[in-house]
Amino acid sequence: MPSFGMGRKLFDCISSRWMKLRRRPLAYDEAQPAAPYLQGVYAPVSEEVTAADLQISGEIPRDLNGMFVQNGANPRFSPGPGHSWFDGDGMVHGVEISDGKPVFRSRFVKTQGLAEDIAAGEATYVGSLSMPGAGKRHKNVANTDLVFHSGKFLALWWEGGQPHELSLPELETKGTFDYNSTLEGGLTSHAKIDPKTGELFFISWGAKPPFLNVGVAADNGRLTRFTEVPLPGPRVQHDMAISDRFICVFDFPMMMDFKRPNQKSLGFVLDDTMPARIALVDRKDTSAPIKWFNVSPCFMWHLSSAWDEGDEFVLVGARIDGATRYTKSGEIRDDLPLVDGEHRFDSHPYMWRLNVKTGQVSERQLDDAFVEFPRVNDNYICSGARYSYMPRIDTSQQTLQANGIYKYDLDSGRRVDLSFPDHHIGYEQSFAPRSGATEEDDGYLVGYVTDKNSLESEFWITPAKTLEDGPVARIKLPQRVPPKFHGRWLDASLF
């Protein structure tokens, strides 16, 4: 793969071309499965914006200082064949808060692939749903997640590859970061940081052996571990978890499907005739055997948190029972929101308890509500988070949209509900601790909310302790923020 340095030079020499092209309206093929994710509230934005004079309803708390940044797909050019919502170029939208005053910024993640597209004046890669041989594919769009580690703010892609470093608070792309030449394979989105040790844990996966590895990087910017987790074949991977004792990864039977009649694009199927397994890898003893646990067939895009409780490893996430539109037997299910006509979202909050001594498994659904993108206070990500914040999915919609937020008390089972106004949708919310906080939920949920009718976006600040009372501040943004994937709150001390 060409170095990012080459891509950076390419960006410098075509800056004038960028200014001419960025105002060109985006077209799309209505026949593409991803078409609903390219129009309306999802339509890409082309401008990179910086704005400080923002309209505020309510009052920004003075005990909240830092920056919220969220990453997501935003195609720079009309997509090629086989486009997926997951394929759009990475664009970050951030709101910096300092002494009650906000600054908004939006920036493309300037990857090598985006540089190639800009040089050509069009998309040069095919989408991830294209059949093999259709063209240049697997462009690292760095559009999925964000993490601050080793003194660097990194944009991550769910398929892996090298992370891209962004400047703070400007959000300009500085280049790729390979952990000082120690990064083996790719560093996938949803990497987890242990707040006690500063270590970053991640997975690296692919369609060829080895199908899955776990990696660990120290805060000094070097890898300390890269270990294969043997699997019987390729699996779609996405998230992972850590506790104080274990790294948790998955063998869910989500497969690529090449056997449909008249198939024109890459398909997926959850093979519920195969076992679903959860693996626990010992964090400290690298020679310890991997502990495998068979669980009910399922898939999971996003987990909430994990922890050790006596002899049990406890995991909470948004479990999906019927994760694909097409079943192994050929049945088609169109009853719930879809992504790309392939992935079906019937996810519910769920808890697994894995006994590491006896091998016994206890699992249960926590609620019949449809949820996705769960988050916790990251300071408790591996040591027993009590509260989980999960967007409430509107199952009457064709696409994945949240019309509210649930706060789950995992100790008592109590659920608190915040509904967005009519015709508004929200995205994943991040937890921002209040300055001087001493309790887990002493802080704010921060994130974007958009009016689907006016196509105007706001940044909401909502006290986590009184979620049901709604936001204390709503900041009107100068640019619509298309529905995004994952975000991060960064304390002002980090930049």
Automatic annotation (TrEMBL):
Fe cation binds at residues 190, 238, 302, 486. Binds 1 Fe(2+) ion per subunit. Its EC number is 1.13.11.-. Keywords: Dioxygenase, Iron, Metal-binding, Oxidoreductase. GO terms for molecular function: carotenoid dioxygenase activity; metal ion binding. One of its GO terms (biological process) is carotene catabolic process. Coiled coil: none annotated. Its cofactor is Fe(2+). Belongs to the carotenoid oxygenase family. This is Dioxygenase.
